[in-house]
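User: I've been trying to design a sequence by hand for this structure and keep getting stuck. Would you show me what you'd pick, starting by listing the structure so we're on the same page?

Assistant: Good idea, let's start from the same input. This is the structure you sent:
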């Protein structure tokens, strides 16, 4: 199920707060329901860990469907297009802090997506997938070691399984919610104080 309170006329920068199936489904505009919510969208580019795009065959598949490196240079280039941009501001830090019974976000120290939106005059639309925590069972063993290695290699190293110890997710209701758009002024080099002001509004 997908719910929205967004303005359908402006090209937003979308934010999804954690890696999930809903993140990957957004590139399929019609089947995911994104096209009906944003009929004026020219398409979607999704920022992901650069390492995913270097996996043989799979990386080519991701790139073909609109996945781009979540680097500063790549996202700035993506924002120069007419496509909507999806980013995961919490990144690796958020993924390694997963808790099955809580919705954990890592946003307070994440200023980059605010700067990105202000530099290119993009509207920010909060997006969240409720129910994602129940799609896979995730293990906490060797958590500290995996967190260190994740930061070292810039790729989230998580241990998880789906149904029957496969990668098939468990059946669970998912609700994808789009929040009220946050319009930001277009500022090429915003001050730290201005960025913090709009981050506080977003949070």
């Amino acid at each position: 199920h997908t719910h929205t309170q967004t303005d359908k006329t402006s090209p937003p920068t979308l934010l999804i707060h954690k890696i999930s199936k809903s993140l990957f489904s957004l590139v399929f505009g019609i089947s995911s329901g994104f096209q009906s919510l944003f009929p004026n969208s020219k398409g979607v580019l999704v920022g992901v860990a650069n390492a995913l795009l270097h996996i043989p065959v799979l990386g080519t598949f991701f790139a073909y469907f609109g996945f781009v490196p979540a680097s500063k240079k790549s996202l700035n280039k993506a924002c120069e297009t007419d496509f909507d941009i999806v980013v995961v501001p919490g990144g690796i830090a958020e993924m390694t802090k997963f808790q099955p019974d809580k919705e954990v976000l890592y946003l307070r120290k994440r200023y980059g997506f605010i700067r990105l939106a202000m530099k290119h005059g993009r509207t920010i639309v909060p997006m969240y997938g409720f129910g994602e925590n129940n799609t896979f069972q995730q293990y906490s063993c060797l958590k500290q070691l995996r967190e260190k290695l994740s930061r070292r290699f810039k790729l989230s190293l998580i241990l998880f399984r789906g149904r029957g110890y496969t990668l098939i997710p468990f059946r669970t209701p998912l609700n994808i919610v789009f929040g009220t758009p946050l319009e930001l002024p277009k500022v090429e080099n915003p001050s730290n104080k201005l960025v913090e002001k709009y981050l506080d509004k977003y949070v």
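That's my pick for every position. To get oriented when you compare it with your attempt: The chain has nine helices and nine strands. Residues 117 and 123 are 7 Å apart (CA to CA).
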